[in-house]
Amino acid sequence: MSHSLNEIEAMSKRAARGAGLSWGLAEEAAKGTRWLAGYGYPGPDLLADLLELNDRLPAIDFSPTSLDGLWRAPAGRMSPLIAGAAMSDCAVRMLDGQAITIAEVSQPLLIVPFASGAALRLGQPVAVEWNDVCLTTDGKQLCVQGAKEGVLTTHTSEVRCSAPAQMMAPTKPVMRANVTDACWDRLGAFAHRTYAPATEASRLLGAGAGLNDND
Questions:
Q1: Span 22-33, pLDDT tens digits
Q2: 3-state class of 164 per DSSP?
Q3: Please, are residues 65 and 143 in contact by the beta-carbon 8 Å criterion?
């Protein structure tokens, strides 16, 4: 089904929050999901996969133990949302010739939207590479090099982020994207956790006259 990017962002934010992410990280995850969907990539599916993979597990297990050298997570797999946010915060290092390298990343494509934000702040395109894939963004456009199956890999042993990078054959985003009903339901299941449970009082208030008959 076709959804506006605003709808995708709103659902993604509620789902990420329902999965236990902080409000700040949930907002970043939602913006990133929207960003990928705008370029024709299945951001909502990638987010749903990641939320299910790490559901109810401590975020610290999928966070970098150090921001020096090769970034590693205690669980042996890195959250692209947490690592992406940290990479964006450390982006100025890349202008000094220091690439940021992240080990054992789940759903690495979810890091790329964070590179977009970093590129806007740096005023320089940022490249995100893994295996035979390279995605470069200046924050407003995206250049993709590599096979689709490589871009959509569920896990990679290493992601390298660097700047400045060269934009070649960039594409611009669109305003709507298709999301399958199955994916929407998966996100909806997480989003449902954010809803307050109904009480007897709220049910009565939501049912018109409730038990009062004024006729």
A1: 999 999 999 999
A2: coil
A3: no
Distance CA 43, CA 75 (A): 24
- For 68, residues 6+ apart whose C-beta sits below 8 A from its C-beta are none
> Nearest 5 degrees, angle CA 199-CA 204-CA 208?
145
How large a percentage of the chain has pLDDT more than 70?
91
Amino acid at 90: C
Strands 100-106 and 155-162: what pairing? antiparallel
- Domain residue ranges in the chain: 2-173+181-189
Per-residue pLDDT tens digits for 185-201: 999 999 999 986 655 54
Instruction: Tell if the pTM clears 0.70, that is, is over it.
Output: yes
CA distance 84 to 108: 9
Pull the structure tokens for residue 10: 């709103």
* Average pLDDT estimate for 82-110: 96
Tens of pLDDT, residues 71-95: 999 999 999 999 999 999 999 999 9
Which backbone phi and psi does 159 adopt, to 5 degrees?
A: -120, 135
Beta strands in the chain (DSSP E): 2-4, 100-106, 126-130, 133-137, 142-145, 155-162, 176-178
Closest CA to 43 of 18, 19, 12: 12
Chain length of the chain:
215
